Amino acid sequence: MKKFLLIAIATIFSVALLKAGDERHITFQQLPAPAQTFIKNYFSVNDIASVKIRHDRMKEYKVLFKNGSKVDFDAHGEWIKIKTRDKGIPKKAIPVHVLVYVHENYPQNLIMEIERHGKRHTVELSNGIELKFNSKGELVKIDD
User: Is residue 45 part of a domain?
Assistant: First the structure.
């Protein structure tokens, strides 16, 4: 009986762990409204390869494009990560303080990836340099 109970508990625990990382395909229309607006403003809906929802610790959405670019959104539809493969992130989608710093200090480089952590940002440039900005918009670290 003890053995059966342990197996049952282990099975339930395993299923719960698998469900925690559940990821499934959804339609563009199932994205939160702010995410749909963001995609329409800065990317082409026709270039979307897939849209997924993931339930891990929190609900997240992932939009993958045919060229390999992707945008991740939080449960409210606010972007948390943008990664491009070719032309760089659209300038209008980049916070002004980040755009100004990169333009002044790395004018020959494109912003290929940006990640938001609250009001902090991490940026990867086309030359591989990573820039980290604090919540005041000040550069705090450069990794090359």
Answer: yes
What is the per-residue pLDDT across 125-141, written as a single tens digit (0 to 9) for each? 999 999 999 998 899 99
Can you give the pTM of this predicted structure?
Answer: 0.81
Residues 29 and 74 in one domain: yes
Domain's final residue, options 59, 80, 101: 80
CA nearest to 80, candidates 108, 56, 103: 56
Long-range contacts for 60-65 (Cβ within 8 Å, ≥24 apart)?
Answer: 61/26, 61/31, 61/32, 61/35, 63/28, 63/31, 63/35, 63/39
